[in-house]
Amino acid sequence: MEQHLSHNKVYLLLGAGLAAFILLIKVILPLLAPHDPNAVNVADALQGPGGEYLFGTDRLGRCVLSRILFGAATSVTTTLLIVFVTVVTGACLGLLAGYFGGIANSVIMRIADVFLAFPNLILAIAVAGILGHGLFNTGLAIASTAWTKYARLVRGLTLKEKTKNYILAAELSGAGAVKSITKYLLPNILSQIIVVAAADIGGVLLSVAGLSFLGLGAQPPTSEWGYMLYEGKSLLQQAPWLTIFPGVSILLTVCLFNFVSDFIRNVLDPMDQTAKGSLYSEKGI
């Protein structure tokens, strides 16, 4: 019970931190933008960094700093939504395959094997090309190729957990499949799912930026870091700041998410190890 409460406190803190982070990028950062990110001013086109335009301007005279700040909301929010949809989809399918087995397990795992036969990014590019341009289609393309990892992970964890005494006791006490999964099984594997999901955020952000860089993601006049790289690549020698600042923004954000994922792993994993150690001690192992 104490272990369960400790995990709940961590989940509460993680949720509060995520809410604060989303508030920062969706509300506070845009307020710091010195100009309208979509305001066209051809007279100020391709001005270098400094003066009124701290990060310079693009070929249409739009403030690069303002587009970077607004682009943070677009890029990061899109990334987090994709990760959320991917985790929920993969986890639900993994729970279904692992808990019930049989035909459900065979069908879901065979479909996952087909998706795993291709590199995720290549498959995402193909799916995005079929669906068409736009961030929504980009999100669908990435999520439709990334769910397999979570399906296989959760299936393995479910197969391991469902044979333990607490699940058997719940079933014998009359708990149905839904209650056994949601009340007993899922809370015991949630921390491992969160650790993997946190580690994937940086990679998903790179995938979103990569598809936008290829022209398959965000479309004008949307401020999005990958699309800003796409717009600036033809002017790399004449106006390098058009690619430097979005590129550095992506780099720093990916590093930030990687540091956060390491922190989450260090917080949640020791709890799991402590719980396992206590269990083994009680059994005299």
TrEMBL record:
Keyword Transcription assigned: no
Domain ABC transmembrane type-1: 76-261
Membrane topology of the entry: Multi-pass membrane protein
Protein name (Swiss-Prot/TrEMBL): Nickel transport system permease protein
Keywords, alphabetical: Cell membrane, Membrane, Transmembrane, Transmembrane helix, Transport
Subcellular location(s) of the protein: Cell membrane
A Pfam family per the record: BPD_transp_1
One GO term (biological process): transmembrane transport
Main location: membrane
Family: Belongs to the binding-protein-dependent transport system permease family. OppBC subfamily.
Source superkingdom: Bacteria
GO terms for cellular component: plasma membrane
Membrane-traversing stretches: 12-33, 80-102, 114-136, 193-218, 238-260
Gene3D superfamilies according to UniProt: MetI-like (1.10.3720.10)
